[in-house]
Structures are given as C-alpha cells and as structure tokens.
Amino acid sequence: MKTVKLFIFGIVLCTIVFVSCSQKRNDLVNSWKVTEIEAKTPHLDSVKNDILANGNLTFTKDGHVSGTLEMDINDGTYALTKKGKNLVIKDENGTPYPFESTITDDKVILDSKEMKLTLTKK
C-alpha cells in the first residue's frame, strides 16, 4: 500500500512540475523586441544602441529561437529550467548563453553577467 501511495505522489509531483514549466514556456513562445538594456561590461556600451535598434528574439513551441542580440541567431534552441527562472539559449553552433529569466505574459527580463535585457511583445 505504501508503494502505491508513493507512486501516486510521484506522478502528482511530476505533473505539477511539468505544468508549471510548460506555462512559462507558453508565455515565452512569441516574438519579442528588446526595449531596455543595461550593460554590465564596458564592451557592451559600444553595441548597446545597435541592440536596442535591432534586438529581437522569436521563441517557438518546439524549442527553437531566432533573432538578433549581439549577433544573429538563425537556428538556435532554448531550454527553461528551475520553473522558468533560468533560460539557456544556444546558437546554431551550440554555444550556450545562460540567463536568469523573469517571464510574464507581456515582458521578458533576461539577466546575465554581461547584460540585463528587457523585451516586450512585438
């Protein structure tokens, strides 16, 4: 009997984790425009205006991302972890770019060692 209860508890816990992560993923799926940038390293000050003018990201349901930040991302992927609080974007070469993320229905904040980006829906 204990085994059955433990199994059911495990299923319920997995379902809760899956639903909370997929909700953040659903909120992220869209096209976003960079509207604010806070450079944390001196080299980013020089490209800040370019990122504000051209910065955008498009996230799809199947885990792909494309757009422009410091460089173009043509066929990248993304993964959300820690209940949507961490986002890792990988470019087409597989280079990871980790961010702490705050995701709402109309705003995404991505915070890394180099910069803090605020994106709004296009």
CATH topology: Lipocalin
Beta content? 35-45%
Enumerate how many helices there are, as a single number.
3
Mean pLDDT: 83
Descriptive notes:
- With 122 residues, this protein is α+β, with helices and mostly antiparallel strands.
- It has helices spanning 2-28, 42-45, 48-54, and strands at residues 30-39, 56-59, 64-68, 72-81, 86-90, 96-103, 107-111, 115-121.
- It has an 8-stranded antiparallel beta barrel.
- The radius of gyration is 17 Å and the shape is globular.
- Residues 12-22 have low confidence and may be disordered.
Question: How would you describe this structure in keywords?
Answer:
single chain; 122 residues; alpha+beta; Lipocalin; eight-stranded antiparallel β-barrel; 3 helices
The gist of it:
The chain has helices at residues 2-28, 42-45, 48-54; strands spanning 30-39, 56-59, 64-68, 72-81, 86-90, 96-103, 107-111, 115-121.
How is this fold's topology laid out?
Elements (H helix, E strand, L loop, with lengths): L1 H27 L1 E10 L2 H4 L2 H7 L1 E4 L4 E5 L3 E10 L4 E5 L5 E8 L3 E5 L3 E7 L1
